[in-house]
Every structure is written in C-alpha cells, then in structure tokens.
Write a structure and sequence with these properties.
mainly alpha
C-alpha cells in the first residue's frame, strides 16, 4: 500500500517536471496552450508552445502551429515571423486563407515592422487579389507608413495602390 502511494507520487512528480520543462508532448494540448499564451500577449510562451506542438504535429496541426509561430514571433523577431508565414503559405497552401495572412501581417504592422508586413501584404495580394481583409491591411499600413522616411516602403505601398501620387 505504501509502495503504491510512493509510485503514484513519483509518477505525479515526474509528469509535473516534464510539463514544467517543456510543456505537453500532445500537439493538441500544446496548440491550446499556445493559443492561450498568445491571447494573453505572452509571445515567448506562445512561441515555445507552438514549437512544442510542431515537434509532434501532423496534418492540420502543422499549419496551426506554423500560423501560431508566425503570430507569436511578430513582436519578437519580424524576420522569423515572416519566414514562418511564408513557409505556411508555400507548404500548406490548401489551408491558408487571406485572413491568416492578414492576422500575421497586422501583428507585424502593430509592432511597427511595416516593411515586413508589406512583404506579406504583397504575397497575400498575389494569392488573393480581391481580398477585402488585405485591402484593409494595406490602408492601415499606408496610413501609418505615410510619415515614414523609407521611400522604398512608400513606393511599394503606392505600387499596390494604397498611396496616391
């Protein structure tokens, strides 16, 4: 009886330690934790959870984890965010929507990474030329970037039709 309690306590301690060290190995649980952390603006914890999910994910979970990583890293490292988003677009085109691209690019815009957000806007518009969500993003970017001292960014937004002459 005492030995059985000791085994249960040891197992509980081991599971708690595992969870504390690296989160769940269950991709669905890791995705849920990533969503929770992202919703709380804990981008580092979210990125770690999405990376954990990606390590064991399959099917649609892979696209969810990559989208989560792209969103979580938008505030941390814009180029990493862009790389995750482009990887998602290139390798999971059947699941990518214009609103997914908008979500990542808008997070980049909110963190004043206008050039990287514009990269994703350009890619998104090439896939979804009639997207109202991406047009909304283009207008937001143009409004914020219109005071930018980056002439190349302004030319790109002008070329997309979001800035006048």
């Amino acid at each position: 009886m005492h030995l059985q309690r000791l085994r249960r306590a040891s197992l509980a301690l081991a599971l708690t330690s595992l969870a504390a060290c690296g989160g769940s190995t269950d991709p669905q649980a890791a995705l849920a934790e990533g969503h929770r952390a992202l919703g709380s603006n804990d981008n580092i914890a979210a990125a770690k959870s999405y990376e954990a999910a990606l390590a064991n994910a399959s099917g649609a979970q892979i696209a969810q984890a990559k989208l989560g990583l792209a969103k979580a890293t938008a505030a941390i490292n814009p180029n990493t965010s862009k790389a995750h988003a482009l990887d998602l677009i290139e390798n999971h085109a059947d699941t990518v929507t214009d609103t997914m691209i908008y979500d990542v690019a808008d997070r980049l815009r909110q963190n004043a990474h206008f050039d990287v957000a514009t990269d994703l806007l350009e890619r998104g518009k090439s896939l979804y030329p009639d997207s109202k969500a991406l047009d909304e993003l283009g207008i937001k970017l143009a409004n914020q970037a219109s005071t930018s001292s980056d002439p190349a960014l302004l030319e790109r937004l002008k070329g997309l039709g979001y800035l006048g002459d």
